[in-house]
């Protein structure tokens, strides 16, 4: 955790991290390319250090999936299509099981790189008990169009979000994003001029569309020449095809997911298929190359000062992509001391996708925040 974290930074410790057994032995914590071994240590209940609080959470294991989990097949069957700019088919989902939702802000879920609407399958059921929940497949992902030759940018995705709010949702909405989906939400909120955005929830926000954005991280600086070389090679169609075909193999996807999830049990066959399925669509290769080699987009540090909306930041502390000790993690850790509209909670034992990794911990902080927002 960065030294700038303050009193409103709370660490939530999941139950599995408290159980020290000989059978489990050491686990591997990923930090970029340098994994390290560590053993579980029994925490001291109620312990606090200075202005930082530690909350140990004991819970029923049956609730670890965050309540009801929707079947992927049911999500796909209930999806709708929206024509963006009159030419691009965008896949979206909407769910509401409560009459109370009409009087509250809607929620829009925006996935991260390589993911899609079903990545929220552990969250939609819980959130839709009190809210109208929308989820969208960004252009180039999921069941949305993947047009060849389209110049993918963070700004384009942000405009898609704003147009979706204006044309489909048509009411003030809380944007909830993960990774690059978070950054797209930040851009959208910073550019919204029609009071469409009611609040922001950022789950391990990315620093850009690709790693070239985080040039202040010494780890990225070391790899930057290789990243530029990789960009050059990816622009060669034959090389890009080989790289993409290898990357989307299920075993490789599983290993990548295992490296970015704290709760390894969440990395199941269904999750692998959620990521793998859309990679077989026409245009998926072009989208992959454009996103990896394209401009990283604006840095969140440039955008957040423009946003006066309530912001909830949830950050998994085992994220190898945007680690807490990296530039993006440090920046968001410092925000609560600079902006009264920002609340930050660090989730212990959680990786890059908190909502799917440990949904119970996310809901535990998200639901009270949403309720407080509704009361404002």
TrEMBL record:
Coiled coil: none annotated. It holds the Pfam family Abhydrolase_1. Signal peptide: none annotated. It comes from the Eukaryota. Residues 107-359 form the AB hydrolase-1 domain. PANTHER family: ALPHA/BETA-HYDROLASES SUPERFAMILY PROTEIN, ALPHA_BETA-HYDROLASES SUPERFAMILY PROTEIN. This is Pheophytinase, chloroplastic. It comes from Theobroma cacao (Cacao).
């Amino acid at each position: 955790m960065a030294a700038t974290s303050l009193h409103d930074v709370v660490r939530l410790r999941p139950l599995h991290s408290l159980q020290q057994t000989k059978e489990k032995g050491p686990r591997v914590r990923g930090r970029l390319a340098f994994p390290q071994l560590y053993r579980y240590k029994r925490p001291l209940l109620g312990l606090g250090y200075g202005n930082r609080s530690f909350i140990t959470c004991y819970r029923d294991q049956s609730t670890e999936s965050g309540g009801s989990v929707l079947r992927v097949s049911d999500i796909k069957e209930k999806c709708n299509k929206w024509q963006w700019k009159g030419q691009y088919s965008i896949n979206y989902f909407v769910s509401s099981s409560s009459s109370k939702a009409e009087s509250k802000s809607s929620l829009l879920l925006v996935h991260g790189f390589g993911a899609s609407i079903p990545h929220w399958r552990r969250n939609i059921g819980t959130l839709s008990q009190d809210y109208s929940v929308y989820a969208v497949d960004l252009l180039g992902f999921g069941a949305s169009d993947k047009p060849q030759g389209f110049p993918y940018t963070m700004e384009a995705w942000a405009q898609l979000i704003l147009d979706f709010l204006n044309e489909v949702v048509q009411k003030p909405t809380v944007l909830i994003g993960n990774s690059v989906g978070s950054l797209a939400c930040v851009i959208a909120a910073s550019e919204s001029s029609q009071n469409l955005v009611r609040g922001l929830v950022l789950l391990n926000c990315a620093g850009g569309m690709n790693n070239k954005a985080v040039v202040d991280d010494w780890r990225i600086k070391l790899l930057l020449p290789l990243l530029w070389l990789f960009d050059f090679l990816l622009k060669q169609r034959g090389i890009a095809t080989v790289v993409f075909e290898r990357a989307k193999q299920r075993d490789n996807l599983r290993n990548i997911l295992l490296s970015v999830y704290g709760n390894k049990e969440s990395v199941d066959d269904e999750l692998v298929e959620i990521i793998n399925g859309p990679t077989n669509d026409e245009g998926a290769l072009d989208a992959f190359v454009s996103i990896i080699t394209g401009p990283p987009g604006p840095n969140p540090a440039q955008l957040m000062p423009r946003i006066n909306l309530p912001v909830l930041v949830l950050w998994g502390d085992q994220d190898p992509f945007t680690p807490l000790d990296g530039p993006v993690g440090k920046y968001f850790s410092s925000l609560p001391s600079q902006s009264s509209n920002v609340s930050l909670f660090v989730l212990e034992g959680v990786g890059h996708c908190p909502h799917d990794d440990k949904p119970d911990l996310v809901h535990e902080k998200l639901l009270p925040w949403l309720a407080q927002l509704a009361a404002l």
